[in-house]
Amino acid sequence: MQFLPNFRAIFASFRTDEEERMYRNTAIIKFAGFVAMCAAMSIIATKYKLRIKSLAQ
Questions:
Q1: Positive or negative, the Cα torsion across 6, 10, 13, 18?
Q2: Where, by residue number, does the polypeptide cross the bilayer (predicted)?
Q3: Taking a C-beta distance cutoff of 8 angstroms, is the pair 26, 19 a contact?
Q4: What average pLDDT does the structure give for the chain?
Q5: What's the rounded Cα separation, in Å, for the pair 30 and 37?
Q6: How many CB atoms lie within 10 A of CB 23?
Q7: What separation, in Å, do the N-terminal and C-terminal C-alpha atoms of the chain show?
Q8: Cα–Cα dist 14/9, whole Å
Q9: Residue 55: left (phi > 0), alpha (psi -120 to 50), or beta?
Q10: Is the pLDDT of residue 1 over 70?
Q11: pLDDT digit string (tens) for 3-29?
């Protein structure tokens, strides 16, 4: 997709280095939180499923 402009570079050119760092850190923290919540929900669902199986037997 070389015909599309680099939107990140366009928006970054309007920000100071401090603002760019703040946005990047915020994005990383939000992504890490999302991954952690996905992992936690997966672990909880697995434990709940195992508990239901043991009660059914």
A1: negative
A2: 27-45
A3: no
A4: 87
A5: 10
A6: 13
A7: 55
A8: 9
A9: alpha
A10: no
A11: 778 887 887 788 888 998 999 999 999
